[in-house]
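Summary for the steering committee. The consortium agreed at its last meeting that each partner would contribute one worked example illustrating the joint modelling workflow. Our contribution is presented below. We chose a case with several input lines so that the handling of multiple components could be demonstrated. No manual editing was applied between input and output; the record is shown as generated.
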Amino acid sequence: MAFSERASRLKSSLIREILAAAQRPQVMSFAGGLPAEAMLPKVDWADMPTSMGQYGMSEGEPALREALAAEARALGVPCEASQVLVVSGSQQTLDLAAKLYIDKGTEILLEAPTYLAALQIFQLFGADCITVPLEADGPDLSKLRSRLEQHKPAFIYLIPTFQNPSAVRYSEAKRDAVAALLDEFGVTLIEDEPYRELTFDGGSATPIVSRLRKSSWIYTGTVSKTLLPGLRVGYLIASPDLFPHLLKLKQSADLHTNRVGQWQALQWIGSEKYQQHLSELRDFYRVRRDAFESALQTHFSDLADWQVPQGGLFFWLALKQPLDTRTLMQAALAADVAFMPGEPFFPEPDEHHGHLRLNFSHIDPQRLDEGLKRLAAVVRQARATDAA
Amino acid sequence: MAFSERASRLKSSLIREILAAAQRPQVMSFAGGLPAEAMLPKVDWADMPTSMGQYGMSEGEPALREALAAEARALGVPCEASQVLVVSGSQQTLDLAAKLYIDKGTEILLEAPTYLAALQIFQLFGADCITVPLEADGPDLSKLRSRLEQHKPAFIYLIPTFQNPSAVRYSEAKRDAVAALLDEFGVTLIEDEPYRELTFDGGSATPIVSRLRKSSWIYTGTVSKTLLPGLRVGYLIASPDLFPHLLKLKQSADLHTNRVGQWQALQWIGSEKYQQHLSELRDFYRVRRDAFESALQTHFSDLADWQVPQGGLFFWLALKQPLDTRTLMQAALAADVAFMPGEPFFPEPDEHHGHLRLNFSHIDPQRLDEGLKRLAAVVRQARATDAA
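What follows is the complete predicted structure of the assembly.
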């Protein structure tokens, strides 16, 4: 069997295994990043024209591209509809970017921690992953500068608004500073914003791409966290120098994104009913976030430290006594609790023990307290064994 | 700007440009492979459960995988649902296969001519494309043997049933012979069958993958030619040794295929109404094929040779006096006619002048005769200029 060199880097996905285990109905899962079932909006298909069944354009539906560009401009991103590419979920943006930029040994710059499925596809293509540590308000700027002085990354990949997994939201000052550094060193920015609309305190700074003056950029978003992930409709907006390449890569990946989902997304983007839905979603998740925080205080205050997330879907816990959290998985699942170990969110997992990513949006509130109680018991048991 | 080495092979797509030009309403287009608008079935969405809006499994919807496996078994393909991967249109199968197999310089074996979008993605990943010529009933077997003796291709990619672009359908004997050769040399088969159901004479031999005894294989199909391409729902079925790798690649490409389209496809696959629709589709396209043949006889009998296609969507014309048909594009579009030049369907376009691919399914029958008349005039004019 002669596979590609690339295929030797195909890892068994820990996420897949955890999510599969978490399917069992008795499992209390803090593992995935799933929207709450109850908050999936009812959608209507009756008015969809038959023509949506025909082949479409690789760029995406023209009206949807216009609507997405208008939304992005309202956020401060200077763009035209011609820069918008509809993709099959924003995961596809990462696939297209990997193809455009990464050969074996290509250096790229990432936050530590970073989104694990981004890490997987970048590493699959052979990237050499340089990282910059995250602080509570964004990256460590002096470390970012030194990385840029010492390396020539093909791009930097950032999730500045309610980062997955850390929930960090970059401050205004750090957004400006990051943009200035990228312009200074001429580094392309890929800015991933799936969680922007899930803000619980009303605030969210404008995207970093809107602060760039020179560097190339790709901004990517999705309707998966706010409308329906099952539609698989995301988008990217790229600086004009990058767009034609990404379009060709999109065409060769899957011709175009499904038009049925695009049509449905268009019924919502920019509409009053979408604003209404987003507002309800924020209220709903804020209540869940608060309940989660309260249960965490009860069960984890002696075990871990964390920041209360102001948006997104996750708490990111740092254990006071670090251990390899991957070793907790089996005991947790035996207790019918699933969580996401923190190690796979780093390119060097063995150098970053002791974090847990806990999703607060999906769990049934009735089972929240029991779930965290059991998870805390698993951690306590492991500590005791460690100490023995 | 530091792109990947791969990106240097991103070609401007002739297809894209032709299809874009063909969008103008006055253009009579023989260029694309679009289903006839009138034959897109009316679909109903009222019964779709809300849960289809949630994230789904990378493998695809369990019920759809079962239905697709049952259909494939009925065709003679020995498989279980666990070997079925739902993909975002069968173009994605080619993307996943390219990732799994192709490094720069990897040898692969293709028909000449072959599907041009397959050629594009295989070449993008750096494949060294070896070809075997097609005859009226399948590949030249002695050339296939000698290629297999001289090369060690990572896989062979075949479209044995109503091939795009040539419309060739392999005979029973050649299917058996190809399978035996692949087993003898231990070469993996990727068998692409988008057109199987579009048969006009009722016949179609069983897939080649069902005749293999040892080699690994990927069989791929789609609902795009028979239901709705806008759903972007295709599938692959793989031998068990390949499936886990393809699944991981699928996950990193776009997490999973849209569930809305999967749900709709499931309403049709294996149903009586689908059989009824397919039967109507065959009748409709057979009439269009016959009308096209008749108009071709009128306008092209002195200019080209061709076989009458027994299925699929295309006529493949060989000009009696070969010339680079790409040079005809501008004159054709000036006359409001679009067609697909034959050269891009070969890895060495400059060695294969003189073919035209003409789609017969999409053109308005009222404009068919005028369209072919104008196209013939363009060819005649170019011949005259050539001779001068």
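Residues 6-40+274-387 of chain B form a domain with the Aspartate Aminotransferase, domain 1 fold (CATH 3.90.1150.10). Chain B touches chain A through 75 residues (CB under 8 Å).
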